[in-house]
Amino acid sequence: MGLLSRIKTWVEGETLTASDLNAEFDNILNNLNPDSIEDASESVTQMQATADPYPGGSESLATSLRGELQRLRYLIKQITGKSQWYIDPSYSLENVRDVPSGEIILFEKDTAVTGYTLLIDKDDMVIYITKGSGAGGEAGATDKSGGIWQQPDHTLTIDEIPSHSHQIDLKGGKDSIAAWNPGDPLIAASNTSSKEEAGATLDILDTGGGQPHNHGDTWRPPGRNFTRQQRN
């Protein structure tokens, strides 16, 4: 039932007059406005009804005003992210920051977000936060091979140095390693009976504290993967 009331109810055999006919048409023309048109929310179920205007990338054309309203409701739900189109959104569009074109943002996604281009010029890097204006002079590395993380001070104490030995290797012709004693000359006369040929050097191989050592290179701190994406 519509909201517009008729002027006259006709009965069988009644004569149709110009005045009655004109009055009824004027009633329609003068009152056919939003306040007199029936709604599309006769029940809560009808009020919640929506229709996707672009399913699967193809237009879905409305065939009635009700269908048009349902398509508009669908888009309102998409914009607000609420379960129903009439529920107040968590944020006002006025408070949503408009990202300028060209600005780079981090997203926890592996693929490009709509309106952004995925940047692939950086990979396997960490980020750090400063107070702005290049605070502290930290410039960071341009790639993962150039980054240096300062390790904590880990100078070994005497108790932390494991027991170890020093191997002495008398290079060149020699009578016997066992025949060499500390304090003996490292370079002797050039003859085969000497403990060391002339020009030979003493090689001491050290192990333990003070020598080069490695820290495992397979460790990395826990984290989440983000991509750099630029606003189109």
Gist?
The model is unreliable at 172-178 and 187-207 (pLDDT under 50).
Based on DSSP secondary structure assignment, what is the total number of beta strands? 5
Distance between the termini: 51 Å
Q: What oligomeric state best describes the polypeptide chains here?
A: single chain
- Averaging pLDDT over every residue, what do you get? 75
Beta-strand residue fraction? 5-15%
Low confidence ranges: 172-178, 187-207
Computed structural class = alpha+beta
H/I helix tally: 3
The largest beta-sheet arranges its strands as 1-5-2
Helix content: 10-25%
Q: What composes the largest sheet? A: 3 strands, antiparallel
Radius of gyration: 44 Å
Shape: rod-shaped
Element string (H = helix, E = strand): HHHEEEEE
Description of the structure:
By secondary structure, the chain is of the alpha+beta class. Among the domains are: 105 residues, no CATH class; 47 residues, no CATH class. Helix content is 15%, strand content 9%. It contains three helices and five strands; from the N terminus they run αααβββββ. The strands form two sheets. Strands 1-5-2 form a three-stranded antiparallel β-sheet, with no helix packed on it. A two-stranded antiparallel sheet has the order 3-4. The two termini are 51 Å apart.
Secondary structure elements and pairings:
Layout lengths: L17 H14 L12 H5 L16 H16 L23 E4 L8 E3 L48 E4 L31 E4 L21 E5 L1
Antiparallel strand pairs: 1-5, 2-5, 3-4
